Amino acid sequence: MSHHCTDDRRSGRDGKLAGQPTGFITDAVAIVATLDTKGPEASYLADLIEACGRKTVLIDVGTKIDDGDKQADTKAPAELLKQIAESTRAKVGDLLRSATISAIVGVAGGKGSAVFAEVVSDLPYGFPKLLVSSARPALLAELATHNDIILYPTLVDLFGINVFTRRVLENAGRAVAAMRYASIKPGRDKKIVAITAFGVTTPAVNQCATRLADGGLDAIVFPANGAGGRKMEQLIAAGEFDAVIDLTTTELADEIVGGTASAGPDRLKAASKQGIPQVIAPGAVDMVNFGLPSSVPDRFRGRRFHAHTPYTTLMRTTACENASIGRLTAERLSRAKGPTIVLWPAKGVSDYDRQGGIFHDPEADKAWLAAVKADLPAHVMVRDLNCHINDGEFAEAAAAWVLEQLTQGDSSDADV
Description:
Blueprint: E1 28-33, H1 35-51, E2 56-60, H2 70-73, H3 77-97, E3 101-108, H4 110-119, E4 129-133, H5 137-144, E5 150-153, H6 163-177, E6 192-197, H7 202-214, E7 218-223, H8 227-237, E8 243-246, H9 251-257, H10 270-274, E9 278-280, E10 287-290, E11 305-309, E12 312-316, H11 319-333, E13 340-345, H12 362-375, E14 381-385, H13 392-406
């Protein structure tokens, strides 16, 4: 059967790059495609890339069953696709570790796009991953929430080479031919802190980043929009950060209530497992995210809403929901192996949650704090601050605590 991966340049038969010596070839572009359905497109793309001076490695993820393969024939489609993705992901990992490839491109429809996303899921952040796809936009949007894939929607179906697909493939081929992954050398000049942000917590994030920079640290900011939190957790688990200021934990609200910005069940876990210092705050837990007003489920009729943009509808969380978010926060922080502190902004958790603001509801906010304090283990500190989350006092407390942890109590850092 043909559902296997190969470094064959064309047909998937002789196990080497066409026109090149047998063995690994450095600095090539990997092309992932189902040769039983996208063979002409893959071949055309390979010619374009090689015309630009790059070598190619063709990886077949087709599901065509060869005659006599009874075992494969009995497998459910989803099981077969999972098997293909797993074996191909391992092969691509080997190609990366051997420095054979420095970029990867996929040519696919719906199923192939899903397989490509799994294949590249272990590749480093920043490794060039380009997907030429005729899949539905909703699927492509979902893939973008899991990885830094560069998406190239074809809009027309991929049925051979024609006047439209030729334009798409030529652009994609030239683009990926110009992309090369350069891994960061071991060691770095500064320690790095991850920070979570939302539009309604931006002032606090800006102040934290400035304070950290003044203290000699780098800050990497992640939007707390589901995709951002998911990627931050992955990078923390990969050892990319020395500390976290998880100032905007709003994604937990979406996880609990059912909004569109959930980062999934692994949110707020990686820093605890890694044992790195972490500051936790209830930034924007006063809101749940939806799209257009028409996208809000009927069960939420009568709730308090705000049109953040024409395409983003925010819903105010209730005291009951905030208590659930607080319990989830405490449960996940209970596993913390490293220094951990929860900072509470008594005067509001977002720009919309302040005196006179559209989401101002101190009692609902306090339900979060009460639940956290009730369930949090003794080794995790909670500090109440009589300020708003976007006040300078709050950002100073968060940044100074991290600076103290990472500089081992250097006297130049403020005592919090």
